[in-house]
Amino acid sequence: MASTIAAERTAVLALHWQVNTTRAEGFFGDMLSAAVRSSGVIERASRFHDAARAAGVPVAFTRFTVPEGEGGLVRNTAFMTAVGEAQESFRPDAPGAALIEEMADLGERDLVVDNQRLSGLSSELPERLAALGIATVFVTGVATNLTVEQTARHGTDLGFTVHPVSDCVTAADPAAHEASLADLELVTAGCLTARQALDRLV
Q: What residue intervals traverse the membrane (predicted)?
């Protein structure tokens, strides 16, 4: 029998559900929007977030933004250099930085935290989660092989019990998505479907 997970010590990490990463008009639209749309991941993740809230689990949204002065952005990869060159598209108040409408109706215990790194936990979020007594995190978002994997690995190293939610993440390339999930199965507490995650909550 699968072990249970205490809802009062659990949070959902909802990564980069933004216009820039999911919509055709967003900065990464050419790379990700078609895969996001065809996969149906937004609808599944939105339903999962709602069900988790109903079980007493807060949802912590991360937004990739670049404030004036670049904040914590470090141009040490081609990816971050490209973002830095287009940083106006990532200003906190830019249309592309906004949470998509399917994710914008926040619960009273939800969080929204901005950062300038690939890991959604490269911010004050770990401290805020610890202050809430959170020990376990379910991870949703895009893209599986980028932010999702980086955050899941980071969270595991920080001491959280991390479960990527396999049907609430996606990537531009199906093969990269599957390969990333296979890696995450080894380096986290294991991938769960949305149904499996909800069924374990007590």
A: none
